[in-house]
Amino acid sequence: MSVRQTIKRHYKIISLLRLRPLSYEEVQEEMNMDPDSIEESLLTSQRTFQRDILDIASIYGIEIESDRSQSKYFIKDDLEETHSQRLRENFEILNAIRLSKSLGNSLVFEERRSLGTQNMAGLLHAIQNSLKVKFDYHKFYDDTDSKREVMPIALKEARNRWYLIAEDGDTIIKNFALDRIMSLLITEIKFKPISYNVHQEFKDTFGIINGTNEKPVNVLLSFTPREGRYIESLPLHRSQKLITKNDEEYQFTYFIRPTYDFKMELLSYGDQVKVIEPETLRQTLKKKLIEAIDLY
């Protein structure tokens, strides 16, 4: 059996058991109803299934146990790291694309420009080997192009875009959207990496804007029940906590920097959200909404 088949079988088992506990026979029945599983010959013996469970715990950090009283398997601990989860999701998307080629218009993508991911491999090489990079960069702020030579630190995803976090000059940390980087050159010039913890620096930030004067504050938001259900299932920020949930509203608290992109995100919800605290953020959004009304 190929490595691809093994990976696909692992992903299928994880997906099924995340829905509900299943017996070995039920897992096989589910796979037997999946055209892709049949095409790839993913059905296996119980011995191979047991080996898969051990491999899934080792590779993905997802521990599967058996409820002997019901002869069903369930996920006990799900410690899958973010990068592993994204790899699995992307693998499943690629597989769906392959499958959809024979199913007409069954898979419809949103039209958008390239994310600049063609530069990711080169930038990762530069980051891991502490090599300076040069490129032309287009700024949306003033619609100009500039030549840059920077010391790359990390790649970060924010709001469906990828960004290069880099030291630009005298320990000035800047963000560069990959889709605006052109003519990338990986130089042979080595540099000494600075101490910069990307996870720590961005943990209280929404999106990609960082290094501003805003300090993290406690934010209390009230959403309509309809929008609140979406926010509960897909949190705005890692610090999100549900405070109130009823037929009138969903209230969430956050510990976050009220940066420009966070304010724009809140404004995008229109009359579906209300800022309760802090008062400064409440008044800022109120002013922006009044200015928007004045345009009409």
Task: Give a quick precis of the structure.
The longest helix is centred in the N-terminal third of the chain and has 19 residues. Helices cover 38% and strands 28% of the residues.
List keywords for this structure.
296 residues; Alpha-Beta Plaits; SH3 type barrels; four-stranded antiparallel sheet; Arc Repressor Mutant, subunit A; alpha+beta; single chain; 3 domains; five-stranded antiparallel sheet; globular
CATH architecture of the largest domain: Orthogonal Bundle
Helix content: 25-40%
- Average pLDDT across residues? 85
Tally of structural domains: 3
Instruction: Spell the H/E element sequence.
Output: HHHHEEHHEEEEEHEHEEHEH
User: CATH topology of the largest domain, what is it called?
Assistant: Arc Repressor Mutant, subunit A
Class computed from helices, strands and strand pairing: alpha+beta
Q: How much of the polypeptide forms β-strand, as a percent range?
A: 25-35%
Strand order of the largest sheet: 6-5-4-3-7
Describe the biggest sheet?
Answer: 5 strands, antiparallel
Distinct helical segment count: 10
The radius of gyration computed from the alpha-carbon positions, rounded to a whole number of angstroms, is 24 Å
Q: Spans with pLDDT under 50 lasting ≥5 residues?
A: none
Q: What order do the helices and strands come in, and which of them pair?
A:
Elements: H1 3-19, H2 24-32, H3 35-39, H4 46-60, E1 62-67, E2 72-78, H5 82-100, H6 120-128, E3 131-139, E4 144-158, E5 161-167, E6 173-177, E7 181-190, H7 198-202, E8 217-223, H8 225-233, E9 241-245, E10 250-256, H9 260-267, E11 273-277, H10 279-294
Antiparallel strand pairs: 1-2, 3-4, 3-7, 4-5, 5-6, 8-10, 8-11, 9-10
Helix pairs in contact: 1-4
